[in-house]
Every structure is written in structure tokens, then in C-alpha cells.
Amino acid sequence: MIASDTLDRAPSAPDAKVHKRNLAGMPEDKAMLRAAADLTRDIAKARPEIYWPDMLASAAVGYLALYGAIATTQPAVTVLLGALSAVALYRALLFIHELTHIHRDALPGFRFGWNVLVGIPVLIPSFMYEGVHTLHHARTRYGTVEDPEYLPLALMKPWTLPVFALTALLLPIGLLIRSAILVPLGALIPPLRTLVWERASALSINPQYRRRKPEGDFARMVFWQELGATAWSWLVLGWSATHGWRPLLIAIGVLSATALLNQIRTLVAHLWENEGEVMSVTGQYLDSVNVPPPAMFTALWAPVGLRYHALHHLLPSMPYHSLAECHRRIRAHLGVSSTYEGANYSGLFPMLARLARSSMRRGA
């Protein structure tokens, strides 16, 4: 086990024995936490000159490629442009992660712009992640049954991994049904409205999670975003019914590929070895995954800073464009034998293999 874990790691990582320790009982590495905070204060400000062009360019490429995939009559071109659209829209969509962490005054208009250009058109308004993802970072919730984004996948039956990944292919259809049918019906049937909100209004993977009723300003934001998503879904369905279903089917295929890509990334975001116990911040860090350079193609499957997912758990409010420099500074300061190295791995496929081996050993 130790040898195979070592092969999974980045070349400079220390012995993987740290992963064999009980992470739920891991004491805080105060030197690492202090270094992470002290060394990065000067780059903790979100820069609109990076956020806006990145989001707008990603959305533009995604939609233009989608249009090309729909307009062409050549199947091979449709597939190629559809793949490009899926990757670009995936990057644009993942700015929803940034919206959950940045201060509401840090990027004026960005939340509204993202929802109009990305969130509502793909039927994933920002409320579906805001107020949800922050629970995943809560000190006493991470890895427990109250964490909406955690399942002990490494300890579950081996067949759960492909099922977990492939169910993402149904997400666009589910979102269309939700916005076009369930939300409007819920306005007339209060019990259905409660059910839809609790069970189908959050980007979560924990089936035990139940979302609490929105209140105040957040409830008003939810209302307008829901209204926009429902109106858009009706417009899309109405246009498809009168002009043909091919464009919608291609768009569903593209968004299904995007959802699958995100689900595969989710599989390697953590080690998924916690069995519901409360963990220290250090334990949470070591249960999470960085895939730093020289890993190739990481920016495609873990964009917008998510290649530094473990580091993100140390510095949740750090803007994505600063994480690479944070990683460089902390690593240089603490050295290759530090706890910090314990969350650095070499790539997507070694991590998927590690998860599969763990599931087969412990969940068979």
C-alpha cells in the first residue's frame, strides 16, 4: 500500500505513510496553517481584470462552439465542436465556485453577469451552490453526514464509482425538468415546493443532505434566479417544439459531457476516506488533493484553480488566480518533507486508480 501510494504522488512528495494515519484524529499543523496565512496576504484580493475576461472568453468560446456543432451537417465536426464547447462551458460554469467564496463587494456585477450569461442559460443559477458549498468548508461539518459534498467513496462498493460518474450524464435533463415543470408546479403546490427545494436545489452529492429554507435577501435572489431559469427553459422548449429538437439534443449532449467531466474531477478532489468524523483543518487538507505542475492537462479537467483543491481548503477565500503563487510560496517555505507535501499528487489517472484500488480493497 505504501509503495503504490508513493507512485501516485508528485515526484517530490514525501513518504505516503501520512495517508495511513487516522486523518480524523490528525492534530493541527500550526506551522503550516500560519505559513499559509502569513505568506499569502498580499495576493488575496480578487482581480476583476482577470475574472471578467476569463469568464467572458470561456462562455464565448463555449457558445460559439455549440452554435457550430448545431449548425454543421457533418457528424465528426459536430463531435469535435461539441467537445470544445463542453470544455469551455465547463470552465465558465466553474466560476460558480468562486462566487461562493469571494466577498459580495469584491467584484461588482460579476454574480449578476455570470448568472445571466452562464448560470441561467445552463439552468444552474448561483443559488444552487451558494449557501451549500460553504457547509463543505465548515470546521465541524466537513466529511460528516451534514456535509453536502462528501461521501466516503473510497470505502464504498466498487460499482458505486462508475455509477457515481455516469449519473452525471442525466443532469441536464433533470435540470430541464426541474426548471420547466417542478418549480412552476411548486408555486401552486407548497409540499412539492418544499420537496424540490430540500432535495433538488443544491449541487450536492450527499443523499442525506436536506437544504434549509432560504431567508431574507437570499430568498429574494433565489426567486429572481428561479424565475429566470423557468422562463428560459420554457423559451427553449417552445422554440424546440416549433423549430426542431436537434439543437436542444446537441446542447443536452454537450452539457452532459460537461457534467461528466466535473463528476470525474470530483472523484479525485478528495481521498474520500473519512467515515463521518469531525476533522481538523490539517486533516481536511490531507484528505484533499492538489495536482500541481508538472502534471499535464490539469487546467482542462480542474480549471479555475481547482487543481489546488487541498490548498483551497487551507485558504478558502483565496482567488483562483493566486493559488499557483500561494502553492509556490508555501512549498518553498516549508520544504518537501513538510505536511504540506502530503496533499500533492501527480495526476488524474493515478488518483482514479488509487480510489478504485481503495474501493475494491475496503468495499468489496
TrEMBL record:
Taxonomy, superkingdom: Bacteria
Pfam annotation, one family: FA_desaturase
UniProt GO BP: lipid biosynthetic process
Domain Fatty acid desaturase: 79-334
Statement: the UniProt record of this protein carries the keyword Signal: no
Keyword field: Membrane, Transmembrane, Transmembrane helix
Coiled coil: none
Protein name: Fatty acid desaturase
Naturally occurring in which organism (per UniProt): Novosphingobium olei
Species classification: Bacteria, Pseudomonadati, Pseudomonadota, Alphaproteobacteria, Sphingomonadales
